[in-house]
Amino acid sequence: MANEEQFLVPQDTYLKTGIHIGTKFKTKYMSQFIYKTRSDGLSVLNLQKIDERLKQAFRFLSRYTPEEIMIVSRRENGWKALKAVNKYTGIRVFPGRYPPGILTNPALENFTEAKVLVATDAWPDRNPITDSIKVGIPVLALCDTNNQCNNLDLVIPANNKGKKSLGLIFWLFTREYMKARAMIKDDSEFTAKIEEFTEE
């Protein structure tokens, strides 16, 4: 493929993590990102579109300071990745249960303000998404072929259930964010290993 060198990682790396493998269900909105449906009924996402949307998301997020971004993942496969993002960038993360109302209720002890929310999966993460809409901050979400995409400002098509896929996405995000914010000069200074982002 001619565009290989323009991908964030070699195409092979993407394929190994199954970032493009969707589910047997597909929503109308997500059909624009689907490349084909396999004989076993699984939908396959278009790698080029995944890569384009990841780049778009990373560019957008790099305009915010770590304190202004919040990343949530109710899904366990994303917990290790989120903790690693926090370790390297200082971005606030909520692996596991999102404390209800922390974005909307200033009376709460753990009330916090954010300027942008990143959700690992629009369905399990619907509570923080609802709160973000109430306070009027943009929402970016990883969406699999079966996700509804209402109320999202940027949909990032990807396998948002697999450990390897989520590990790679957040590893890439950390690398690109640190470069964009001049925390590191280039890829050679990025020492984080992908294993640090991937659940066992």
Brief sketch in words of this structure:
This protein has 200 residues and is an alpha/beta fold. The protein has helices spanning 11-17, 47-61, 79-89, 126-135, 163-180, and strands spanning 34-37, 43-45, 69-73, 92-95, 116-119, 139-143, 154-157.
Please tell me about this protein's structure:
The protein has 200 residues and is α/β, with parallel strands linked by helices. It has a single domain (27-97, 107-181), classed as Glucose-6-phosphate isomerase like protein, domain 1 (Rossmann fold). It has 5 helices and 7 strands, in the order αββαβαββαββα. The chain has a 5-stranded parallel β-sheet with strand order 4-3-5-6-7. α2 packs across α5 (163-180) and α3 (79-89) runs parallel beside α5. The longest helix has 18 residues, at 163-180. The two termini are 32 Å apart. The mean pLDDT is 95.
